[in-house]
Amino acid sequence: MAALVEFRGVAYRIGHRTVLDNINLRIEPGDAIVVLGRSGSGKTTLLRLVNALIFPTSGEVLFDGQSTRDWDPIRLRRRIGYVIQEVGLFPHFTVARNVGLVPRLERWPPETVQARVTKLLAEVGLPAEQFGPRFPHQLSGGQRQRVGIARALAADPPLMLLDEPFGALDPITRLDLQDQFISLRNSTAKTILFVTHDVREALRIGTRIVLLDDGRIDTIAAPQDFVRAPSPEARAFLNCLEIR
Length: 244
What we know:
The chain is of the alpha/beta class and 244 residues long. It has helices at 43-50, 73-78, 95-99, 101-105, 110-123, 128-131, 141-153, 171-188, 199-205, 223-226, 232-238, and strands at 5-14, 17-27, 32-36, 58-63, 66-67, 80-84, 159-163, 191-196, 208-213, 216-221. It has a domain at 1-32 and 41-79 and 158-163 and 196-244: 3-Layer(aba) Sandwich (Rossmann fold). The chain is built from eleven helices and ten strands. The strands form two sheets. It has a six-stranded mixed sheet, with helices on both faces. A four-stranded antiparallel sheet has the order 2-1-4-5, covered by helices on one side.
């Protein structure tokens, strides 16, 4: 099976500082890859390389078999759903208009856009008749994040990038959204690249966990194997699971 995303010997440097070094990683269709690491380990940089917000200093990142340097950046990004912690909804757009933005840009027929928005809002627990006419400031943080996920799914992209999407939420809302996200992941069979510094979240969401340590891959393992990973960095994260 061809990889949907592939990192081949990727490094990224800013001046004399190496942010990522020798990253080799294949992401197959249907994978849910969680990139775990401390602050400053290179997680968000790795994510931004995929949708060509930045380019490698050396090596290459491929999407669907083609280097990100060779993609038209607009076409590339419209094939990738992107969810960030701050959500990034347009404040002057209604919820429905926010969710339908990319399908409209792709010139979907209006009735198809409306049906897609209605379906996705229902799937994230925000019925369109109730929440579609609202504006982002009329929603809670958890509701805004649900809208962000619906928007990322709207044009049915093969890949979703999520950068600590639940990090700013309270623990109960975060757990609820994790459950809903897992259900959506299973029902849509999307390929996922999900960044977090929370090992519990990584173990719940990922089919594989990629642990970064100071810009390098320390460990790649399925969750059931990650809990037995011997590296000091993996053990440091797993120690966080202990109740003190």
